[in-house]
Structures are given as structure tokens and as C-alpha cells.
Fold this protein.
Amino acid sequence: MSFSKSFSTMASLLLIIGCTGGHFSVPNVASSSGNQSLGSVGGSTPTPTPSVSPTATPLPGASVTPTPTMTPTPTPKASPVNQNIVLGVNGHDGRQYYPLTQSENLFKLLDSKNLRSYRVDADPRNFTLLDEMVRLQKKYNVNVRPMVYPLTKADGYTLAKKYGADIKIWEIGNEQDYSKTGAQDRINAMVTMYQGMKQASDELGLNLKFTINVMACNSDDTSATARCPNDKNGAMWFLDMAKASGFNFDYISFHYYAYLSDKGYWYDMYFGQMRAMATKYKTKIFYNEVNCADIYQGNTDGGKAGDKACYDSMKQLLTEVNANHKDIIQEINMYELLDEPNNDGVEAHFGLMYDLTKPKELFNLITSFAK
């Protein structure tokens, strides 16, 4: 997450062999994944209508007090249940093209389109940003999914104590599996932040949940910088290392940016990695960075229906996950809501909208899945 997507030359080269990875920050070396760089849905069980005994017919000549007919209790309406996986977007409130002055209109838009998850990167000390996110979350019924950068244990404790009553799921770190080199040091930093937040959660009975992030990993890559050579489980090594180091995460988030041609071989590889992780750790996946990989090849407008590229790729992918992976994917967050023209190169064009008043055609496709 630099949540700013700096996509390195090395990552771009890896895209050629079928990968695209994350986006909030650190450059990634992934496969068909992306590069930059956040409750299960359910309904209440209706109360059954009680069965009513028929009124007895009296014998002739008998004196009988009439039995009143019982009025059935109306069956309550079940809470709405999403037909599809809960859908949302990424944003960068507080940055140039996401000023806090427009955040209310942004949440109003999300609410109107039934986009119920908003992943945002946050400095844990930026209380101005987090205060506004909490206010808007409550007002518009959109769950804020913060990705926080790991700082000190004290920072983690303060953050959880201040916001734990309102925000229950916290993602610590973004795309820290970008290389095996130095991975333990990066995990140690995440664990330190986690320990502070977990301590506050336990002391105050907040029951906070924590998410760890990984990217799709091309197991066919056996180069010197490969992250998961010949390992069909992808970045599972990173999860195992984090768990062994004391990061007792509750959820796993996953980044994967797809081409239309990925269906089949690459879908099997990357959704297979998601499923293996969800199965091993008995948890759900937050698929919280996704868009078409065609952006890395120069697409700037999100494409149009029938383009056999960006637009068609996203239609195919969202159809795939809702048809075959609802059992493991809890939420999907598109990367990202708005273009950021101040970013370099392709990083400027990941928005579903050019700005808050000008949607790309892709935006309408994506929101059609928010049901």
C-alpha cells in the first residue's frame, strides 16, 4: 500500500510472465497479481408462523363457549442477504485527489451504489483522518477497512484503544511479502504493531480482528528473485513465518490483478493459492486489491464492453469469484475508486472514475455486481 502504487521495472517485467500484484506501496515482484499499492453476510431466520388448531364443531344441543380463532403471528422479514460477495473499493483519503473535504460525498456515492467496504491506508497517528472515517462509516453504513503502517507497540496500543470500539478489523502492513530478502525484519515490525493493538483489545474487551496481506505469486518463476519458486501455495511461506513470529492474524488479504486470458491456468494458480491459505488457516480471504492487469500495459479508461481486455476481464473475474469462490472470499475491494493523476506512469490510472463526478464505463459494470 504505499497505497501509492510505485510499480518497479522489475515488477513490470514479471507481469509479462503472467503476474500482477498489489498496490498500496512497496513495489512487488508478483505474477498475475497487482502492485500497490482492506463478518460474513447473513440474514436472520424468520419466525415460523404458528399452526392454528381448527375450532371444534359442537355436538347438537350442547352449550359451548366459542373458541376464539387465533391470529397467526406475522412472519418477520429476513434481513437482506447479499446475492454476491460484499463489494467495495480502495481509496486514499487525505491525498491530493482524495481531499477530506470530499470524503462525505465519496461515502454518499458508495452508499448509493451498495459498495459496503472501503479500504483506506492510514498512518496510525493520523487521528484527523480516522475520526472522519469513523464518522462517515456510521452515517453511511460502509465498513471502513484501514490498512495501517506498522509503527511502535505504543502506537498500536493507542490506536486500538481510541478506535477499537468502532473499527473491528485492522490490516497491518501492505505487500510485505514482496521479497524473501528481509522478510523476517518486516514481519517483526508488523508483530510489534500487532502486539500493541492486541494488548489494548484484550484489556478493554474489544475483540479486534487482524488481517495479514500477501500477493498472488507466480510459482513458475524460478529466477534469482522468485518469491515462491515451484511452490503451488504461493506466499504461504510468508504467512507461516508471520504466524511463527507471533502474528496471530484472523484474516488473510490477497492481491491479484487479472488479464482476460488468465482464465484457466492462471485462475487455477492464484485462486488455488487463496483456497490453500483459507483452508490451512481456517479463515476467510479479503480479496482487497483487484483490477484489470491491462492497466500495466497502458489502459487508462477501464475499457468498454466487448473489448476483450480490461472491461471484459473484470466482468469475467467477478463472475468467476461469485460463482466459484464465495465460500472462501469474504469481501472484494476494487483498486481504486479515483484516478490519481499526480502518480507516475500507470499508477495514475487505476481509478474506476476519473474523478468523483465522472465515472468510467467500468464503474457501472463493477457496481452491477454490488447486489
The radius of gyration is 24 Å. Confidence is low (pLDDT under 50) at residues 4-19, 25-80. The longest strand covers residues 209-215. Residues 46 and 77 are 7 Å apart (CA to CA).
